[in-house]
Amino acid sequence: GDSVTQMEGPVTLSEEAFLTINCTYTATGYPSLFWYVQYPGEGLQLLLKATKADDKGSNKGFEATYRKETTSFHLEKGSVQVSDSAVYFCALSSGYSTLTFGKGTMLLVSP
Amino acid sequence: NAGVTQTPKFQVLKTGQSMTLQCAQDMNHNSMYWYRQDPGMGLRLIYYSASEGTTDKGEVPNGYNVSRLNKREFSLRLESAAPSQTSVYFCASSELGRRSVDGYTFGSGTRLTVV
């Protein structure tokens, strides 16, 4: 079955540091890939997505590239801010009715 | 604003009490979902409804029932609440059944405590 594996957190960074959160997946066919963000006390929001191999999703300075050869969709940001502190979830859709989520990675950014 | 609305936002129940969590979406999505989120466990799917008139069990359905009242509304019922059901509950909707690329839209959650 489908599965998503994310690096365990928390990831602790200083403001303006470079961020990478790793995500790898197992799926049949050609899934769509997503990153969601959950700020404290809120629901999940779609951050970015990619629907085919080599696509790059981007939003709010975050980027992720759909790498079919390595089955990965790593999230990156060049310079994090305190306001980026949140939990980040990687997810995939194989064309069925449900998304498959990773367990989430908490990011803590200090001033 | 278009989206997914959950009520209530907070609830405290005594063990054995029942309650229904309400969810409504105004995006004309076919599919709706109920998840629970617990520390260290990520999101776990309780039930989902791929289309109006259908419901299916997810990963953790025991102790819950659902009703897809119409295309807009999908409720989650706890018949006899237990402390193990203390959690944050999220409703979501999507067009995934049609191979949509838009993923889910989530509600803001219901924080339930069972004492």
Overall shape of chain A: it is globular
Protein structure class of chain A: mainly beta
Strand content of chain A: over 45%
- Counting DSSP H or I runs of 4 or more residues, the number of helices of chain B is 0
Stretches of chain A where pLDDT falls below 50 for ≥5 residues? none
Model description:
The complex is a heterodimer of chains A (111) and B (115). With 111 residues, chain A is mostly beta strands. Chain A is built from no helices and 12 strands. Chain A has strands at residues 3-6, 11-14, 19-21, 23-26, 32-38, 44-50, 56-59, 62-65, 75-77, 86-93, 100-101, 105-110. In chain A, the strands form 3 sheets. In chain A, strands 2, 5, 6, 10, 11 and 12 form a 6-stranded mixed β-sheet that branches. In chain A, strands 3-9-8-7 form a 4-stranded antiparallel β-sheet, with no helix packed on it. In chain A, a hairpin with a 2-residue loop joins strand 7 and strand 8 (62-65). In chain B, 0% of the residues lie in helices and 51% in strands. Chain B has no helices and 11 strands. In chain B, the strands form 2 sheets. In chain B, strands 2, 4, 5, 6, 9, 10 and 11 form a 7-stranded mixed β-sheet that branches. Chain B has a 4-stranded antiparallel β-sheet with strand order 1-3-8-7, with no helix packed on it. Chain B starts with a strand and ends with a strand. In chain B, 35% of the residues are buried. The chains are: A mainly beta (111), B mainly beta (115). Chain A binds chain B through residues 32, 34, 36, 42-46, 49, 51, 89, 91, 93, 95-99, 101-104, and chain B through 4, 31, 33, 40-43, 45, 48, 50, 56, 58, 90, 92, 94, 96-97, 99-109.
